User: What shape does this take?
Amino acid sequence: MDELLIPENFDFETTKQLNIVFQDPLKSGGSARYDVFLHSTEIHNDTVTFINDEGVSVTEIIPSYDETNDLIASKITETGLFNLVVSIPAYITELYVIKNMQGVFTSNTIQVNGSTAILKGGFKNSATVDDILYGVNDSGKLFTIDLTTGQLTTLTTLPVGSGACAIDNINNKLYYVGKLPPYRLYKYDLVTQTNQTIASLNMKVERFDYNPNDGLLYSCYNERLYTIDPANGTVLTQKEIEDLEGSEFGDLSISPEKKWYLATYKGVYWLEFKTNKVYAHKITQGNLAFKATGMTITSNGDMWLSTHNANSKLVKMNKANGTWEYKFSAYNQKIDDLATRSIPQAPVIEDADGDGVEDLYDEYPNDALRAYNTFTPSALSDATLAFEDNWPKQGDYDFNDLVVKYRFKTVMNANDKVVELIGKFTVAHIGGVFENGFGFQLPLSESQISSVTGSNITQGLVTLNSKGMETGQNKATIVVFDKAQDNLYLERTITIALQTPLDAATVGTPPFNPFIFINKDRGREVHLINQQPTNKMNSALFNTQDDKTNIGQGKYYQTSNKLPWALNFLETFEYPKEMKPINQGYTKFNTWAESGGSNFNDWYKDKPGYRNATYLSLESQ
Assistant: This one.
């Protein structure tokens, strides 16, 4: 590491702040919600071997998408003219934006140019209930089923056989996917009765639904849940599903109450979204007496399933406890998937909490103090802080002495002010023997904070005031824990309530100013390079041993060769093995550092030629 030639002002940041400029004027009296996603277009294939539901070992190639592709920010506006400031990985070159106007969804990909991204557009008008089931099968039939009489009516023959369909009721579109490679995504217009080919998905689709809450399609195959833009077939996110029995067939359905359900041959589950995974909770007892192929939930909350037979049957299930019964007689054809069409009516604008934000957009429809959220690094993913704890000695640069995963939710009100911060922290690894504490400092005074809860303070090293912040500080300082060993693999939730709502620019960007204090010495802090210490720092330690802090020049926590003691990543970081320097495990690290971050700004990704796995822990895999 000492041989590296580091540019003078390089700060080893793997992230950057981005100003997103929205120039999308809305009609007077209108409103819209914008959701912003990180978007990496890189795809690689995973070879997966599993036992299918017939008991046969199957090996398939399944596409894998970047784990960072996820929701990072939202905004509700009446003008369409505003800015958003977000933190993104430095390698991200484009964002994906979905606009919701009264249930009418449009999307755009916008390019990241340096520290700015601009969305330009114009307004679009909107219009939303009786239910009828639509179905498809592998013979290419599209048909309806009357839920009053059970009568099945064939509408048309589709261009391909299909086992997956979903309906966008606002725009009167039925989406379906071909049963065979390349698994094309199609759109059928329920009004004009015409078909349109959208894209080849190149992956098998059996469990499938449209989410009216975000305007996206969701597909599940094996144990992966994919998010797909119906406009162009772009896969936006990928999540793993845990605790799921039954790798094939079944279906996916989202209820009017926004609860997710998944059917397999083994049973029916409800889905719980946590971090970067999804957890399946079984609601049926044992294995089903039938094999489910289709599933849909009507506007009144009734769950309907179809059976895997040459003469399929309809099943009505209580989604609360999994009890069920057959309805109507068997049909003389297969029903491979189901979807519900609710006849659109004029939209009803509701605002239950009276905050000026329609319930359609409001993430807190019954709380006038809260309206929507932004996230760091994203809604369901974790970021990583990796520390060396031998400061002021240089150490071994394995960046595994203390590894902390974190995720922040910033809660905004209807006036676009921050009202609350919720941070989740997990000690992912302790590579050293020191008993270290961890905290972060906000660019706010204590008077701007109402309360802080969730700290784990047990060692007598830290004193908290009545609001939950550390005493003796000129800025609001939150100590998450004072002994890492007592918090290993445990998630700590820190909730920070503001005294009065503040501008996002005033509050700053997570993770703010994070730090550790080393081996029970509260005055021995380590921060990210060039971040200032807190008032508790023993400044006599600066410029001792390998530290070359220059307070007058605003340079902190760097060696004579400008190397840091801490790194921040807006995603999971595979830390090196003990006493293995980071540049041995990551082959592009040296080039990145010596270029000042210009080359290989994605050096820590799992890409061909980027890693030497011999030197990496790979514990998150």
